[in-house]
Amino acid sequence: MPLSEHEQRQLEQIEQALYREDPKFTRLVRSSDPRVHYKRKLVQSVVGVLIGAGLLAAGLVTRHVYLELAGAVVLALSLLWAVINWRQHLARTRAARTRINRRTDRRRPARGSRGSRGSRGSLMERLEERWRRRQEGDRRM
Question: Are 40 and 80 in contact (CB under 8 A)?
């Protein structure tokens, strides 16, 4: 269930207060996020591609073979670096999805164990039903 605008504003305010109060914690959280590392490596590879293309173009204009060779090598290595990081990022994303799916599969009861209820309904319907029961005081789920 998505958060309301008021709840989102409150969450953002709490996050900002936490970041202001504890900058070391903020750096620690951001440094452990794999997306930050992926973005940094992607930027490094793009810069490498630009430098390699520039060296290659400079070598072609000045007719210096060593510049062309250096540009081609830097360009190839940067592209290789980008592809390797992209594949690692995809593998991590797939692994995380698999872990989440396994975790949710363990929580689900075996088919047919829910009694006469035929269709399980959509995720939103189930969440709304749980929320309604929780508001009514029934803690079973």
Answer: no
CA-CA distance, 66 to 64, in Å (whole number)?
A: 6
Residue for token digits 């998505």?
A: 2
- The answer to whether the beta carbons of residues 76 and 52 sit under 8 Å apart is yes
**SS3 assignment, position 85:** helix
Q: Give tens-digit pLDDT for 27-60.
A: 777 777 777 788 889 999 999 999 999 999 999 9
User: In this predicted model, what pLDDT tens digit does every residue of 52-75 receive, in sequence order?
Assistant: 999 999 999 999 999 999 999 999
33 token code pair: 């996020």
Q: Are 139 and 9 in contact (CB under 8 A)?
A: no
Calpha distance 80→87 (Å, rounded): 11
The single residue listed with the structure tokens 């090598």 is: 73
Beta-carbon count within 10 A of 123 CB:
9
Quote the CA–CA distance of 75 and 46 in Å, as a whole number. Answer: 9
State the residue for tokens 């593998």: 91
pTM flag (> 0.90): no
CA distance 16 to 9: 10
